[in-house]
Amino acid sequence: MADRQSQTRAPRPTHTHINNSNPTSTFLRKLQYHAPNSTQLVGLLTLLISASILLLLTGLTVTATVLGLIFFTPLILLTSPFWVPIGTILFVLTAAFLSICGFVVALVAGLSWMYRYFRGMHPPGSDQVDYARSRIYDTASHVKDYASQYGGYLQIKVKDAAPGA
């Protein structure tokens, strides 16, 4: 590969004397100067062969699909009362199975995260959980302080309103 890159194309000889009287020779010189090298020709041939094969395979696939629909449409229409319920049942069962698999994966991921969190391994997002826990604790302590301050005030007011209570 390095040999191929190190080789450079030899410069074409420049002719100082161009015969303008013969346009065919001028055209041939220009054509020869712009001619592709062997690597470019092999690449072009490979591209053409690959494109031809893919075009042929596409044509065969479309032809087989159309012929299959032509021949099997009567059979499909005649047996549709049999296939529609089976297809519906299979669709519902497949959807249920995939949903259950998704829920199991989510459950295992959640349990794994909780296990790592409670073991102190600091899984992703544990700092947010710790922050939420501290906010909840702070809010609860503020509510407790507020209730202790104003709860006694309300008990005094109740005794004033109903002295026998």
Quick recap:
The protein has four helices and no strands.
User: How many H/I helices?
Assistant: 4
Question: Low-confidence stretches at least 5 residues in length (pLDDT < 50)?
Answer: none
Order of helices and strands: HHHH
Counting DSSP E segments of at least 2 residues, the number of strands comes to 0
- Estimate what percentage of residues fall within beta strands: under 5%
**What is the mean pLDDT?**
84
Distance between the termini: 102 Å
Secondary-structure-based class equals mainly alpha
What layout of secondary structure does this protein have?
Layout: H1 2-6, H2 23-33, H3 38-118, H4 126-161
Structure description:
- The longest helix is centred in the middle third of the chain and has 81 residues, at about 40-120.
- The protein is mainly alpha-helical.
- The N and C termini lie far apart (about 100 Å).
- The protein contains four helices and no strands.
- It is elongated.
- The protein has helices spanning about 1-5, 25-35, 40-120, 125-160.
